Amino acid sequence: MERDGERVEEAKARLITELQLLSTITSKIKAFGLFEIKTTNSASWNSILSLRPLAQSFIFCNVNNGENSWFWYDRWTPFDQLINFLGPNGPRDLRIPTSAHVKDACSASGWLLSQPRSDNALKLHIHLTTITNPRHLNEQDSYHWCVDGRDIMGFSSSKTWEALRPRATPKDWFKEIWFSGAIPRQAFMMWLANYNRLPTKVRMSSWGLNVQTACCFCNNNEESRDHLFLSCPYTISLWRLIFARLDRNRAPFISWTELLSWVRVSTSAAPNILKKLVTQSLIYNTWRQRNSANHHNGFAPPQTTFSTIDRDIRNVISARRHRKKFSSLIQLWIQ
Ligand SMILES: [Zn+2]
What we know:
The protein has helices at residues 2-28, 31-36, 43-49, 52-56, 82-86, 90-94, 119-128, 157-164, 168-177, 184-194, 201-206, 225-231, 233-246, 256-264, 272-294, 302-319, 324-327, 329-334; strands at residues 59-62, 106-107, 110-111, 142-147, 150-151. It has a domain at 168-334. The longest helix has 27 residues, at 2-28. It is mostly helical. Residues 27-37 have low confidence and may be disordered. Zinc ion binds next to loops.
């Protein structure tokens, strides 16, 4: 056991040293150059280069004049690398070549992208309307080492390790989120929300993006994950309608941990599986309404969103009613 511990420590120290070296190199040369460096006969150099994909997940490009940033390969929007976000047909669909810099995708009068052909392309178009046209800026683009979406002003081995290390708690949560009978797209959204990975306005702003952070529902608070899903008056109305069915005397959640604890506990009136379905549906549908509002299409009143949640729950229970776990849920939900 002790030797295993030593080996883990040794591997950790080596990984951190190599990442630190990579981050130093990155601050000197632009990101794409880094990813073009060829392997050599040196084992330690090759070992460092093999970490490029890992390092890439920490490097965020702050676009100014768009001269150095690569449109498809740098991470400069909330959508990660655009080549992954829009897929291999992206360059053809948007008519932006894979070798383009960000500045090549715009002229002094605006962006030169073709009309969007997919939801993701539409999201990109919408995002681009929120940032300043690089052709109007003189400052050079810059690259930053970011952990959990925050620029940590240089390399920090402890923060980087904290983001990389396998953690015990998420493993516990795996079962709670990816359970048999869950609606995959809703479970995925819950998974992102649970790790605070959804591009809320507060997170986008922390990446240096020029966005208004006010919540689109109440316009009264910053749009963080916890505000959006727990304490916004819009969501509180949804939770009230849910509590009226599952947990009558329940007060609104004041923290994400409190929500998770509530979901975990099974009672005869509200088995854990029903709470999980309801929570995932609420998060999914609230996020949809939030996107609709942010894209200037307005949002449905809470009662309408609750009807959608209600329909989701009824459909999922009815499709799985032959399973033992689901057979009694409908009475509990519609009572
Ligand atoms: Zn709000």
